[in-house]
């Protein structure tokens, strides 16, 4: 019937921002202090219940290292949703996130549901990017914004669930 949806979701962001850690937390409930840097991309899937429906998220966890940048369009093309991740302790990673936003605005699907995730929110004492600055940037660019922690699990299920709720046909 009409109550099941498959949706492709891509994670983009600087190396070390915590893309793989967010996915591992969401899909397996795990966190690794020494998560290995992704090579190419990794695929995961997870099914969520949203209202009376189910959404199967087909998740592409891309590699943030610059040498893999040219692969990214293969993963964001045709994606219904994206999470652009930065690390709240690293201003460069926030600048890199803004570049991903621009790239998606130019080349991505115009109806893509896009979230901005300020990850490593557990590291408050090392914070370099304020929630106010990132939230204002997100508002100006039509993104929804959450600070997350793959380590403590704060807001991790929430950000994937919020994406699922915003997909067309809900
Ligand atoms: P690439 O695959 O290279 O693009 O990196 P990535 O964005 O997938 O980052 P990854 O998940 O590999 O995390 C990088 C490092 O940050 C790892 O050592 C993680 O343990 C750590 N990390 C990830 N998320 C968090 C978090 O929320 N809090 C803290 N304290 N550390 C985190
Ligand atoms: Mg990774």
UniProtKB/TrEMBL annotation:
Transmembrane segments: none annotated. It is found in: Endomembrane system. The keyword GTP-binding applies. GO terms for molecular function: GTP binding; GTPase activity. It is a lipid-anchor. One of its GO terms (biological process) is protein transport. Keywords: GTP-binding, Lipoprotein, Membrane, Nucleotide-binding, Prenylation, Protein transport, Transport. One of its GO terms (cellular component) is endomembrane system. Belongs to the small GTPase superfamily. Rab family. This is Uncharacterized protein. It comes from Dioscorea zingiberensis. The lineage of its organism: Eukaryota, Viridiplantae, Streptophyta, Embryophyta, Tracheophyta.
């Amino acid at each position: 019937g009409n109550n099941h949806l498959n949706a492709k979701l891509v994670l983009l962001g600087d190396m070390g921002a915590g893309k793989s850690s967010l996915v591992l937390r969401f899909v397996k409930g795990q966190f690794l202090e020494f998560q290995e840097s992704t090579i190419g991309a990794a695929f995961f899937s997870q099914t969520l219940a949203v209202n009376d429906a189910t959404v199967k998220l087909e998740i592409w966890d891309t590699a943030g290292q610059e040498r893999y940048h040219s692969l990214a369009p293969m993963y964001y093309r045709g994606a219904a949703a994206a999470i652009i991740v930065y690390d709240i302790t690293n201003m460069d990673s926030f600048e890199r996130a803004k570049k991903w936003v621009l790239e998606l605005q130019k080349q991505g699907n115009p109806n893509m549901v896009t979230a901005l995730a300020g990850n490593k929110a557990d590291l408050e004492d090392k914070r370099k990017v304020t929630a106010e600055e990132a939230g204002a940037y997100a508002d100006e660019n039509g993104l929804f914004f959450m600070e997350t922690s793959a380590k403590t699990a704060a807001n991790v299920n929430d950000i994937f669930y919020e994406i699922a709720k915003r997909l067309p046909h809900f």
